[in-house]
Amino acid sequence: MKIHEKYMRRCIELGKKALGSSSPNPMVGSVITHQNKIIGEGFTSQYGGPHAEVNAINSVADKSLLKEAILYVTLEPCSHYGKTPPCADLIIKNNFQKVIIGIQDSNKKVSGRGIKKLKDAGCEVLLGILEDECRKHHKRFLTFHEKHRPFIILKWAETKDGFIAPKADWRKAKPEPYWISNSYSKQRVHQWRSEQQAILAGTNTVLEDNPRLNVRYWKGTSPIRIIIDKSLKLPVNLNIYDNSTRTIILTQVEDETKFREGLQYEIIDFEKNLAEETCRILFQKNIVSVLIEGGALTLATFINAGLWDEARIITGDVIFGAGTKAPYIEGKQIDTEIMGNNTIKTLLHD
Fold it and tell me: Which amino acids are annotated catalytic?
């Protein structure tokens, strides 16, 4: 069993290479071994491209070895036609006698069907190798299919004395962002942005900070921007309207004459739970992960609804003395990172 765990860990390593590019597909990793030697590796391509198993099989120089090889994969091979043909069919076509799988797919289009197809073809299937590690690796995909909502990461920066923004009169006197994060933390945040499919911010944050909500200090794709603008009061000259990336506005305004070209609008009921309504729309849009960057009211809405999976909190050595208090949150601390004069704490929602 130890040898299986060794190769499954390599699958997880490979799968991480697809973070930020494969969504809404899972970031699967796959390894092919022959006589305990790796002869092929692959991970999920950018959405619409080949899956991990296909890339692994294509990487094998001598295809005649496949009938004697073992295929390892973090997630059950797909059994249905989507953007690409079923991976299970390709595995069967190449006469693999044994397939080692980390976890079963919770997508109802696949769940168990890929495994059944392989077994029916005479392939030996071993399921559950490094199951906990594979579930953690596929946390975004599994949350989406099991809870019918995206994997939600909350992020904010707070001062040493617990504020996320200064007093309103400070902003009036100096209308520009008051940075709590240092340059290293800013870069880390842009890395996080590149790893999620979407980013969300509330009206006040966009109005006061005029953020771009894109990826600039890290190599990667900018996430889909989700903006909460109940009454469509945000002015047209803001950075979020630069058409540089897909932008979705959540609003209660139904008058399409007020909609701006190049943006998508989704009507939600603000009388209902805003966090639940937002999750409903994002699920419909096939968005599997979202980074919520504020502001305080938006963050509190998701915290109070219990709709979050991780919180990443940056604490700087700045002191405001007064202003907007940082959200109150409870969770299991799973990581602490020191970046210069900033501390980044990661909490897991128990």
Answer: 53
